[in-house]
Design brief:
- The radius of gyration is 26 Å and the shape is globular.
- The N and C termini lie far apart (about 75 Å).
- It is α/β, with parallel strands linked by helices.
- The longest helix has 19 residues.
- Helix 1 packs parallel to helix 3.
- It contains 17 helices and 21 strands.
């Protein structure tokens, strides 16, 4: 039995429910199972009720609070009760025991592990947020199930903030036999075109699945549906019943930067990608020209942060017969060259170094730190900070946070291959258009099993979800500098320091090398510096 609470409706509940607690539940627009409703009534204090409901809603992404959900997110209850006095703890424990739930007033080990996995902090001007990439155990099917469940709940919380989905929001398992107007939040399980040219999409959530139909005569909606990737999590406005729904609108989680951070200090951040040290096409002279500029030019003195966004070396055995195109044939020799470059960078510049597919670490994402065995020189530098791929970096000035999402960009090829709009515009030549789709989905690589989107599952959370909207989203991979702005986020896809390879020539990819974008963190002005020689330009 569910008790529905809608704002504006009057309730008289035997005089037991205190007015302030009723107000809390009505404000949140929640549905409470009878047992949970009685529990909140017995807790009696508005502050406890508000904290408890907010935490459970935030963690679960659900508006329907059941006894089973309360049990599932029991760590939230523990967090609230841990802060109370001994007497109040005993009182709440007694109430929960009556419901058949047992409380231990201590920190949940699950929550401790989750916190460690998503955050690593540094007190000196920046914070790093990334997944714990150490292998703890053998992967099992349950890890993949948990990862998808976590992704759904993370994106569900984002979608529930979209005004378009507020009316009629329901879980698939609650759909009845009669036709009704509904909103659902679901993952794309399957797509196919019927013989009449319409599109059938199978949507699923934690309670079930339902088929949705998109009519071909609604061209605008059909184009959006074509863009959907398998395993995307989206909001759907539709009409229908548990057998079939007719889709009227598709809502992506999307990314909106409401306030652009600007620092008081006049400093800059620069972005470099795809050096490919060790390749016989590595543009060494051009990069050394950049290093000379860093040390001598007046414009470079404001640079306080320098980001290397993966593929720092060309690697060994990355593709068949690679040894034929290597100038340095050992991984250590390649990293020695890379480290020699970094030692020439002024010591007051903090250097963030992320890996890519060619670096000395596993290819599946999230990628761990570059292996110390092959790159000991990087670990000896005081101003070098090794980060994972991806990594969320917050530059700190007082109470201001300038947020930079660093991702090398392996999944960009899958997006371009699968999305018609990107294929038509040949998005390898304008890769920032591809990054827009990541921000739109709030996920770096949604489709399981895609050729360039191999990932490591995490049962507690999906580290490839873009949980916070960044000020800057920087990538590499495609070897072309491209700049875009998407709803306030500055997108930078990196240049490279490698001439066109035989493979690039074969597939028609034309690199745009030797360019460094420099962003002023006070004015948000972006300048591009080109370190090509005139004969290179010809």
């Amino acid at each position: 039995m569910l008790l529905t609470l809608n704002i504006g409706r009057n309730f008289a509940i035997g005089g037991k429910m205190k007015e302030e607690i009723l107000k809390v539940i009505k404000e949140k627009g929640l549905l409470l199972e009878k047992d949970v409703f009685e529990l909140m009534n017995n807790l009696a204090e508005e502050g406890i009720v508000r904290s408890l409901l907010e935490k459970i809603e935030e963690r679960s992404g659900q508006k329907i609070i059941t006894r089973a959900l309360l049990s599932q997110y029991f760590s939230s209850v523990q967090e609230i009760t841990r802060e109370l006095s001994g007497e109040k703890q005993k009182e709440i424990e007694h109430i929960f025991v009556k419901l058949g739930l047992s409380i231990e007033i201590k920190r949940s080990s699950v929550m401790e592990k989750e916190t460690q996995r998503v955050k690593k902090e540094n007190k000196g001007g920046y914070q790093l947020f990334y997944a714990d990439t150490k292998a703890e155990k053998k992967l099992e099917v349950g890890d993949f199930v948990g990862s998808f469940k976590a992704r759904y709940q993370q994106l569900q919380r984002i979608l529930m903030q979209r005004a378009e989905l507020h009316n009629g929001l329901i879980s698939i398992g609650k759909l009845g036999g009669e036709r009704q107007q509904i909103s659902i939040i679901a993952m794309v399980k399957e797509k196919r075109i019927t013989k009449n040219g319409n599109m059938i999409i199978v949507f699923e959530d934690l309670t079930g699945e339902v088929g949705g139909i998109v009519k071909s005569d609604n061209r605008e909606l059909f184009d959006i549906a074509e863009e959907l990737q398998l395993d995307d999590v989206v909001g759907i406005k539709a009409s229908g019943n548990r057998d079939l729904v007719f889709v009227h609108n598709i809502v992506f989680p999307d990314s909106f930067l409401n306030e652009k951070t600007k620092f008081e200090e006049d400093i800059c951040a620069a972005f470099v990608s795809d050096l490919h040290c060790g390749s016989d096409r590595h543009l060494r002279e051009n990069f050394e020209r950049f290093l000379e500029w860093l040390n001598k030019d007046e414009n470079a003195r404001k640079i306080k942060y320098l980001f290397f966004i993966g593929d720092n070396v060309d690697g060994v055995g990355i593709f068949p017969n690679q040894e034929n195109v290597l100038a340095l044939k050992s991984m250590k020799g390649q990293y020695d060259l890379f480290a020699s470059y970094l030692k020439k960078i002024p010591k007051d510049i903090t250097i963030f170094i992320a890996p890519g597919q060619h670096d000395a670490c596993r290819v599946a994402e999230p990628q761990p730190l570059i292996n110390k065995r092959y790159a000991p020189g990087l670990y000896e530098m005081e101003n070098a900070v090794l980060i994972t791929n991806p990594c969320f970096v917050k530059l700190i000035e007082g109470d201001k946070e300038f947020k930079i999402l660093v991702y090398h960009g392996a999944s960009m090829h899958t997006f371009i291959n699968e999305i018609k709009e990107l294929r038509i515009m040949k998005a390898h030549k304008c890769p920032a258009k591809t990054v827009k789709h990541m921000l739109k989905r709030r996920h770096l690589s949604p489709t399981h099993g895609s050729a360039s989107g191999i990932y490591i599952p995490y049962a507690e959370n999906d580290p490839l979800v873009i949980t916070e909207v960044p000020d800057v989203f920087c990538t590499g991979e495609v070897h072309r500098l491209d700049i875009e702005n998407y709803h306030g986020t500055l997108i930078i896809t990196g240049s490279c320091w490698q001439a066109q390879t035989p493979y690039e020539e074969k597939v028609g990819n034309e690199p745009d090398p030797n360019k460094v974008p420099v962003l002023n963190l006070k004015t948000r002005e972006l300048k591009i510096y080109d370190f090509s020689k005139k004969e290179d330009e010809k």
